[in-house]
Amino acid sequence: MNIHFKLFSREIRVAFKRWTDALTGFILFFLIAILFPLISDSNKEFLLTIVGPIMMFSAFFASMLSMQNMFKPDFQNGTIEQLMLSKGSFVSLILTKTIAYWLFTSLPLILISSLTASIYFVSGSGILIIQLTLLLSTLTMVHINAFTAAITLGIRYPGALMTLIITPITLPILIFGSKTIENSILGTDISGPLYFLTGMMMLSFFLGPWITASALKISMD
Amino acid sequence: MNLKKIYKYGSPPNFYRFVMKLEPWCLCLGLLMIAIGSIGGLFVAPKDYQMGDAFRIIYFHVPSAYLSMSAYAAMGISSIIGIVWRSNVAFAVAKSIAPFGALMTAVALITGMLWGKPMWGTAWVWDARLTSEFILLLLYLGYIALHATIKEQKRADRAASLLAILGIVNLPIIHYSVVWWNTLHQASTISKLDSPSIVGEMLWPLLLMIIGYMIFFVGVICRGGSAEVLMREKRSNWVKEV
What we know:
heterodimer; A: mainly alpha
């Protein structure tokens, strides 16, 4: 059997065993979205203007919360070392691992976002645009998270450091993501920011696994 | 460009001797230029017809803003050299640039705020350049923090360098994504070289300050880098001779 397929099914099985990781991010995403209308103004116009930033912000926080455990358990039990020594290319194995991780932590957010968007009175094609934006931006963010998790692997309490590293790198995605959603709600052209998000996603797929692999190699010596 | 020279100065003793010769010149020349520039800027240059005397903070704001960005570029380049050629000297230089660059970024931000308060009526606006300067500060702090948290020297060097390189790739993207907003910051005055929108008596102290800051920066890096190299090589023979 192909090594990538094996690794992928192994990641899925492990993820089901550690389901609390994924659930924490999921609950956080949902709670931020629900709490915001509760503690601030809840009229329709106001909510429609802030739905873009809120969506991007809660997706960012949810993905950041779960990422500490991205490589740590596998690092401690030696799986990463085995992957490094195995026959396939380490970079593509990392890509497989990242995609499996994304499936478990970010895909649920995209599915539930149709519900949270309707809380904010977004309707029809707006929901689809939100989901598309979240799809593109979480696919980019997962690579940034992977890099950050890899480079802070040997550190005992990496929490604050991770935030410091991850915020500046993720910022463009947050800006353009909320710009896309805002434009779609205002009914103006969304192609500009959407192209940018797609470009960032391509770039991160191209560079991300490679730079994560070298960060892991540095953390392993 | 011949690589032999790079290899020659890449060896710690050669680097140390070269830098020790360079350092006093850079520091003296830089300080001299900064002194002349400050006098020229604070006393000789005429008042701005709109801003009055308050515009004089430009002589500290613009050079530090320039330097904050070029210092990051220098840090990224020496990180790349360090990772590609496994050069300990390049890592030492990158590490010594980081605090100085962060300081310059902070100076640029603070002078900008002091300048903005009387001119725009507010110390902070969510404007493109201010925001990307602030993000630059975060990138510097991330580098310093990552380097400081990892105990083992070699690992810390390589991990922090990887972060610096990623920052170099990301910096233009961050900048242009922030430019997306409408910008309040005045357009730069001296980039239009053929027809500068600033009179000569105001211009020369500014140019002198910028160049002086750069040369002084090189001197400071020589000092920091050589100290860092000495720390790292403290067990080797040539350090005992120095």
